[in-house]
Amino acid sequence: MFNTVQSFSPAFRRFALSRVLVWSGAATSLVALPVLVYDLTGSATATAALAALEAAPYLAFGLVAGAWGDRFTRAWTLTGAGLASAALLASVPIAAQVSTLHVAHVLAVATAVGILGVFADAAAFGSITTLVDRGELAGAQGLLTTVGTLVGVAGPAVGGALLARVGAVHVLWVEVAAYVAGAALLTGLRLGGGVRPAGASLLGSISEGLRFVLREPLVRRLTLCGIGVSLASGGVVGLQVALAVDELGVPLDGHELGLLLAAGACGSAAAGLLAPTVRRRWRAGLVASVGYLAGFAAVCALALSPGWLAAAALLAAWHLVATTVIVNGIVARQTLAPDELQSRVNATARMIAWGGQPLGALLAAALVTVVDVRTTILLLSTALLASALAAWASGLHRLAVSPAS
User: Fold this and answer.
1) In the chain, what are the domains?
2) Res 55 pLDDT > 70
3) Per-residue confidence band for 298, with pLDDT thresholds at 50, 70 and 90
4) Torsion on CA atoms 315, 236, 281, 218, rounded to nearest 10
5) What is the number of other CB atoms lying within 10 angstroms of the CB of residue 375?
6) Residue in 328, 379, 364, 366 with CA at minimum distance from that of residue 225
7) How far is CA 55 from CA 52, 235, 370, in A?
8) pLDDT above 90 (res 346)
9) For residue 16, which of 129, 181, 122, 147 has the smallest C-alpha distance?
C-alpha cells in the first residue's frame, strides 16, 4: 500500500491525510455519540433518531451543497466546514463540564455537523479529479476508502477503550482535534471550484447537475437502486448499539462494543483495497446488482446473529458489500461527469441515493416501538431485496462505465 500512496502527487497525499484525520475522529465518536444519547435517555428510539438526524442533511442540503462545491473555492469550503464542526463538537463536553448538557444539545450538534459534512463531502468529491488523472480515479478512491476505514477500524476500538476510561462525552475531544488538524493540512492546496458561468443562477446550477444524473443511464440506475442500500444502512446504523446491548448482552461501557463496531470498518477497508480490481474485472452495473442481493443476505443474518462475535463478522460482511457498492457508484460518476459538474453530480446522486438513510433510521425508530430490534432490522432488509429486483428488471447488470470497461 505504501508504494500505491507514493505513486500519487504530494498534493493528493496531503488532501488524503486531511480527509483521513476527519474520518478517524468521526470513527472514534461513532461509539461516543450513540452511547452518550443512550446513556442520557435509555432509549433505542433516541439512538435511531440520532442516526436519522446525522443523515438527514444530505436529503435537505445535497443539491445546494453540490452547486456550492462547484461555484465556490473547494479548499475554503472544506476548511470552513472543518473548523465550524470542531467548535460545535467542543460545545458538548464543555456543556457537560458545567452540568448543562441535555440530549437536545447532542442531537442539535449532530444535525449541524451533519449539514457541514454535506458541504465538505461535495467539495471533497469535486476535488479528487483536480488532483489525479481520470485513469487513476478508481485507485485514488479505493485508497481513500481503504486508508480511511483502516483508521476507522482503530477508531471505534479506541473509542470503546476511551469510553471506559474517560466517558463518552470526553471522547469527542478526539474528533475536535481531528477536524482542526484536517483543516490545517488543506492550507495552500488548489482544489478547484469557484466556477460561476455568467448569468448562471444557483437554481440553474443545481438543475444542470440533476439533469446529468437523470439523463445518464448508468448513473441514474445506480442512484435510484442505491436507495435500498441507504434505507437498510439507516436501520443498521441506528440500531446496532441497541442490538448489541439489548439483544446480545454487550455491556454499554465495555470494549466489546467498540470491537463490534470496528468490525464494520474492517469490511469497508477490505472493500477499498478491492476497488481497483473490482473496477477492472466487472461491469459497474453488475457489481451493484450482485451487491444488493449479497447485502440482503448479510443484513438478514445480522438480525438473527446468536452472539456478538457472529454479529461482528456479519457487520464486516455487510460493510464490505455496502462499501463496494458505494465506491463503485462514486467512481462511475467521477469517470462520467465533466470537471465542472463533479461536485453537483456527486452530491446530487448521493442526496437521492442516500436520502433513504434518514428514512431508514426513522422507520427503525418507529418500528422498534412496536416490534423488537431483530425484527425491525429484518423488515428493513427487504429494501435491499427491492433494489436487487429493480436492478435486474431494469437491466442495470448489463451496463458498464464505457464499452471498454
Assistant:
1) 7-187+211-398 (1.20.1250.20)
2) no
3) very high
4) 180
5) 13
6) 328
7) 5, 11, 23
8) no
9) 147
